[in-house]
């Protein structure tokens, strides 16, 4: 067995057909989790991720609920096979809610209600104020900040997420983000691509929704996580419901400090990472770091590979005892 960190992806990792390789049984833990989620939000999430339409899946309220449910269902499958627990967890933006559920700090039903509302509120901000999120590849955050400063005097554009030393996401008013992206290209950016997100997440445009989000968080029970979680806004481990809620409110308009989170994991001498979710965006971010061995769980094959590698040492013993590892 190996010590590892478990990471949960955020918005943008959704696609039609995600987790389809897990659905070879008529009745399994993945499907059960989706049915449970569908009941809470009163919408058939399982049908949505398998059949679409894509436009519906990309609506924030459904996107966030679908990604949360995907991560939780895969984590439940991991536990059902007696997979070992990680030393710590972290989630990218929305993924922080997945981490809170999987560490037993928050009920799945409560998290679903919150992220469903969170998605609706975030989407409303862009109805009369077009927003954009772009990833800037190949230059560091200081250069991107310089570009943002040029166009942030009259409109909003700022750093939404520092994913790595040379992948920075900017967010804000559509026109300002577009102009800032062009300026970054002139400053040496190798590539710029639009994220599959139609809101200005992690920017000041999200501040007006904090009051409504805070109301639902106030009446939500959040316990100390059983597995430590590194949060997005402070890159800290919090152990009280009050501090966790405060961080979740600030997270919605603050920069996701993902690179610092990865640095802290490395500082803790954890060099194996498991991404639990429908894609492998976070896994791909770690490819350049030779100190890490990264696994994804985006399909059944990768899940089984990761399970065998991480649980090495106890795997053969459990096989002899007749435990079925076919999901």
TrEMBL record:
Pfam families: Acyl_transf_1 (PF00698). Keywords: Acyltransferase, Transferase. It is an enzyme of class 2 (transferase). GO terms for molecular function: [acyl-carrier-protein] S-malonyltransferase activity. The active site is at 93, 202. Its EC number is 2.3.1.39. InterPro entries: Ac_transferase_dom_sf, Acyl_transferase_dom, Acyl_Trfase/lysoPLipase, Mal-CoA-ACP_Trans/PKS_FabD, Malonyl_CoA-ACP_transAc, Malonyl_CoA-ACP_transAc_FabD, Malonyl_transacylase_ACP-bd. The keyword Protease does not apply. Signal peptide: none annotated. Coiled coil: none annotated. Residues 7-289 form the Malonyl-CoA:ACP transacylase (MAT) domain. Pathway: Lipid metabolism; fatty acid biosynthesis. It catalyses: holo-[ACP] + malonyl-CoA = malonyl-[ACP] + CoA. GO terms for cellular component: cytosol. GO terms for biological process: fatty acid biosynthetic process. PANTHER family: MALONYL-COA-ACYL CARRIER PROTEIN TRANSACYLASE, MITOCHONDRIAL. Belongs to the fabD family. This is Malonyl CoA-acyl carrier protein transacylase.
